[in-house]
Here is the input.
Amino acid sequence: GGASRAEEEQVVNAELSAALVAESGVGEYSSSELEDLLAGQDVSLSPYVQPTRHGLRGSSGADEVLPLLQLAALYLTEPRRDEEAFERFRRELRTNLQNQEAQPQFQFQKRFTELLWDGSPRRMPLTLDRLEELDMERAYDFYESLFDNPGELTFTIVGDVDKDELAPLIEEYLAAVPGEAAEGDVVDHGDRYAEGVRTDQVQVGIAPQSIVSVVFHGDHTYEAKENHRVRTLAEVLERRLRELLREEIGGVYALSAHGQPMREPWERYVLEVAFGADPEKASELAELVHEELAAIRDGELDESYVEAAREAQRSDYEEGIEDNQFWLSNLEAFHRTGRDFADIHEHPERIERISTEMVTEAAGDFLDPDQYIQVLLLPAAQQ
Here is the structure.
């Protein structure tokens, strides 16, 4: 659901609603009173509203599950409406936005978002002028409309806790909240990524540094094999491009590549290559990136980069299965997609099937030279 359930004129209220409630507190307790009440306890929980999802996210010590579930119930049933908290929230947000808009990185990201989403108002970052759309009652109303039926929510709990001890607490504090079982829905407003190649330069600031970001994007089949291909390709690209630009050529401060498959409101992927660079070399290095991507699409890729990706994924999996967050994120993902959770055991086999051929084929599928966004951040004096 998330902010997708808001009409366009309510997007700001929707996106800020959870943060406002977290600032306001629950029941008879303000946010500062909650902090005092929980002092000395390892307990934290807050609501969130994202573009297509909403929920509660928190953690506690193994012996402090009770206050964690009590907090969850209060955020569902008794979000606090507090005019003083609203004014404080708006004042602090205004100050933060003033500072943010003075930053070159913000102007860079804003322009990138405009190009990627073809200027869609629903997708633009929050700015000072849009803050005027924030309305206290409408923001609180939207939050309550999202959370008024906990029958839409799926609670996932991972940790060192006895199930027999946990069950009665869930019955008392979660199951007792009134609601009816229902499927949550994401409203598709038709926003889509811009077609073709779009490039621009943002010239702002005086610091002698630049950022280059190149994002490939397209429709995607959201399933385990394809998701793994796009993520593995990004890992290989990061290693190869980092070595090429930083170690062989120089002038690059940091480089990252990230592949992200997404399911809502339509199945798609983005694959971003971003790096900081000497402003004098930024354009040249961007061209070299595209040349190297073309070479990889043509099959010019050393096996060593692929083996490094395999080894890193093996290590991540072995470490992940000992970590609560690994199980939490996988449980959530498997539930959303309806997959059998036993499929988690297929991942080591999928890692071993990574090959140079697989990566170069993925490059052909996910690095379309006719479908990407590229933005360069340069100092204002840099022409």
